[in-house]
Amino acid sequence: MRPKLIPGDRFRFRSDGEIGEMNKSCQLNTETFHTVKRVLKNGRIDHEDGGSYAAVQCEICNDFSNIATGDRVQLETSLENGGIYTVMRVSDTHFSFNKSEFHYEYPKTGEWINANGGTIKIRPLRIVEKAPRRLLADAQVGDILMVESANNIFCYEQISYIGNGYIHTDNEMGGFAYDVDTGIDLDANAIVRKILPLAPEGTAEWAWQMMLLGKEVTVFDQPNRHLRILDSKIKDSNVNGFWNGKGYIDFKNSAVKTGWQIYNEPNPQFLAGDWVELTDGLQCCLTECLNPNSGHWLAKKVDGSEVSAWEKDSIRTIARTIQKSEVVVTLTLSGTVSEFDDDGDFELRFGDSKNDYHVININALTPEDAELVRELMGGGE
Length: 381
Hints:
Layout: E1 10-13, H1 17-25, E2 34-39, E3 44-47, E4 52-54, E5 58-60, E6 72-77, E7 81-90, E8 94-97, E9 106-107, E10 113-115, E11 120-129, E12 144-149, E13 153-163, E14 166-170, E15 177-179, E16 190-196, H2 204-212, E17 217-219, E18 222-230, E19 233-236, E20 241-242, H3 248-254, E21 260-262, E22 275-278, E23 283-291, E24 296-301, E25 306-310, E26 318-321, E27 336-338, E28 345-349, E29 357-361, H4 367-376
Antiparallel strand pairs: 1-2, 1-5, 2-3, 3-4, 6-7, 6-11, 7-8, 8-9, 10-11, 12-13, 12-16, 13-14, 14-15, 17-18, 17-21, 18-19, 19-20, 22-23, 22-26, 23-24, 24-25, 27-28, 28-29
C-alpha cells in the first residue's frame, strides 16, 4: 500500500505499470518534481502549479539533501510503514540511524535500498521534524536533559559540567558528553530531545524532576512517606501502591506545592545479626525487623527461643548493642569433678586419658551446679 501524500511532500507522476502508461498518454512529465500544496477530502491533491490530480497517479520523492543530525525521518518499507527514527550520522551522500534493525546507510536521494539480505526494501520517506540548531546553547548546570538513546528509549540526565563545546551529565551509567550544537553524544548513540530548566528546589515541579532522574522524594510533613517513578507511574510507599495520577500534570495538581526534599534511607541503628541487651537485662540476637516505623524486631535468645524487642518505648526496649564476647551462654557439660583448689578451679574429667579434662572455675556455674560440685568435693571452697 502506497503511503499517503501530505502537504509539503515532493512528488512526481508515476512512470510504472498501467498508471505510468496512462500518465505518459496524458503527456504528464514523469521526471519533473512537484510539491503537494493541499490534500482534498476525495483523495485528490493540489500542487503548487495549480493542477489537481488523483493521489494514485503520484509517488513521493522527497529531497534529503539538507538532512542533519537530530532530524526525525519516517521510513517506508516494502512490507509496511517503517516508523520514525532519529538521524545520528550524516555524510556527504548518506545518513543513518541508531535503530538496530534499520541500521543502514540511506542515500540522500531518497532511493530504495535492499535490506535484510534482500528480502525487503527500505527508503526514507520524509523528514517529519527538523532538529533545533544549538539546542543546548542556553543550557545551564543543573538543568535536566531528556535523552533519546538507541531503540527509541528515553531517559533523563542532569547537567553537571559545561565546557569545550560539550554538555556533561551524571547518571547511573556514569554520565555522557553531548555536543552543544547537535545534542548528540560523543559515540553517536544518543541525542538530547528536550531541556527542562531546573525548577526551584522544594517545589512539586522540582520533586517531579528528581523522580525523573530516578531519585525518591519525600515531603516535610510526611518524612516516612516517599515517592518514586516506577514503570512510568509514581510508586507511593505509604499506600503500597501507585499514585492515582498518570503524569506530571496530575502530580502537580494534587501534590503538596512545596516542602519537597530528596528521600534518603535512614541509617539503621540496628541490623539483623546484632547482639543486644534489653532494658530487662535479657540478651538476644536480632533476626528480622518486623516494622521499620515502630522499630519492632524479632530476636532469638541464647537458648534459641524467639522474643520481641523494640527500639524505643516498650517494656522490652533495646538498651544497647553488645559484643559477642559479652554474651552469657548456658552450657551443659558432663564428667567427674576433682582437684578443687583455693581459687575455685576444679577439673571436670570426661574421658579415659589423663588429658581428657577441663579446668572450670566454680564461679562460672549456676548456683545449683556450684552447690553440687562443692558437695562432691567434700564441701571445700
